[in-house]
Amino acid sequence: MSLSSNLQEPTFLILAALADGDLHGYGITKEVEELSNSRVRLSAGTLYGALERLKRDGLVEVAGEERLQGRLRRYYHLTDSGASALEQETARQEWVIEVARTKLRARAAARLRPVQAAHPAQLEGTS
Fold this sequence. Notes:
By secondary structure, the protein is α+β, with helices and mostly antiparallel strands. The chain is about 55% helix and about 15% strand. It has one domain: Orthogonal Bundle (Arc Repressor Mutant, subunit A), CATH 1.10.10.10.
């Protein structure tokens, strides 16, 4: 993955959720919700579709499975490629944020400058 390949926010949050350890689907959903301050709530279809794409791209892998109360629980693991993609996207977002901050500082500085009066020569002939 290159820096020009932006991750969608849900995908970024799924990778971030897995950065500190393996999780099963419900665990990922809850961690994404927490990381996003409840802004992003993944449906099962969205989560498992994203996980399938991430598996196909080699960014996550199945770490193991267990049967709990008759239900299969699959755990997912962030691969080294997934960690690299997360690092690259984090760097890209930091760069975008710094660009925005620089522009906002310039805007604030421009608003603080006194308005310069027009030079009298510029005013001649404008009446």
